[in-house]
Amino acid sequence: MENIIESNRGKKQLILNNFKFRIGSSNKGLIRWWCTTKNCTAKVYTDENNICINNTDTPQHNHGEYSCQALKKQVLNTACKRKAIENVSTRPKKIILTEIAQNSNSSDITINDINRIRKNIYENRRKIMPPNPTNIVDAHNALNSIDVKTKHKVKIFYWSMMKKKI
Ligand SMILES: [Zn+2]
């Protein structure tokens, strides 16, 4: 079964029969994927929906396949990172536990794995968040750039007023 995951560097990868492929060229909706192992020339083709074409044409690898366990951990990591960006206010712990609960075989997930995923969540969120302000002017500028509204769609102008008092 095909599965799209993310590499540690955030690049798209295709998993097929416990082998990993990185994206190559695409032409008229046909995408070529290369094996991620160095010096391996195995390649597969998929359509735009990442569905494998010519499945019977088994690619020839010059190395062994990845363990299911390692791939599952990478799938879990990718899912958590995606959820962390989609739901920026959900606690990392909740995201990780929800994803683990949905994983049919999660007994081999260790504390180290969870710590690594949590670290990845923080790093990913940091990329989409404005940097932490180092002085009061930056803090006000950051707040002014955010269109904060109350439940009743009234823009909060408290911070702008505060700024004038400084
Ligand atoms: Zn290979």
Outline:
Residues 5-63 form the FLYWCH-type domain. Helix content is 40%, strand content 18%. It has two domains: 1-66, N-terminal domain of TfIIb, CATH 2.20.25.240; 67-165, no CATH class.
Structure, described:
The chain is of the alpha+beta class. It has two domains: 1-66, N-terminal domain of TfIIb (Single Sheet); 67-165, no CATH class. It contains five helices and six strands; from the N terminus they run ββββββααααα. It has helices spanning 68-86, 92-102, 111-128, 136-145, 158-165; strands at 3-6, 12-16, 19-27, 30-35, 43-46, 52-53. A six-stranded antiparallel beta sheet has the order 1-2-3-4-5-6. A hairpin with a 5-residue loop joins strand 1 (3-6) and strand 2 (12-16). Helix 1 crosses helix 2 (92-102) and helix 1 runs parallel beside helix 3. The longest helix has 19 residues, at 68-86. The mean pLDDT is 82. The protein binds zinc ion.
Ligands bound to this protein structure: zinc ion
The helix fraction, in percent, is 25-40%
Secondary-structure element series: EEEEEEHHHHH
Name the overall outline: elongated
What's the domain count? Answer: 2
Which residue ranges are poorly predicted, with pLDDT under 50 across at least 5 consecutive positions? Answer: none
Chain-wise SSE layout:
Elements: E1 3-6, E2 12-16, E3 19-27, E4 30-35, E5 43-46, E6 52-53, H1 68-86, H2 92-102, H3 111-128, H4 136-145, H5 158-165
Antiparallel strand pairs: 1-2, 2-3, 3-4, 4-5, 5-6
Helix pairs in contact: 1-2, 1-3
The structure holds zinc ion.
